């Protein structure tokens, strides 16, 4: 079984938006709606993890000693 290529954050968000729009129409057969809902939950978790990691990275800076420290600790 071939390993699926990892989507970028933007690709995952775009796919999630398509799923939401499809489900909002109410015209998707029940079985497909359930599959789409599950896929949407997975994409939502992936996007949330990506955002959490980005926030963690952005809230750290390098100290004078070359170590990463939380942004709030600088100047204390």
UniProtKB/TrEMBL annotation:
It comes from Vagococcus carniphilus. Gene3D superfamilies: Exonuclease VII, small subunit. GO terms for biological process: DNA catabolic process. Bidirectionally degrades single-stranded DNA into large acid-insoluble oligonucleotides, which are then degraded further into small acid-soluble oligonucleotides. This is Exodeoxyribonuclease 7 small subunit. Heterooligomer composed of large and small subunits. Belongs to the XseB family. One of its GO terms (cellular component) is cytosol. The keyword Cytoplasm applies. PANTHER family: EXODEOXYRIBONUCLEASE 7 SMALL SUBUNIT (PTHR34137:SF1). It is an enzyme of class 3 (hydrolase). InterPro entries: Exonuc_VII_S, Exonuc_VII_ssu_sf.
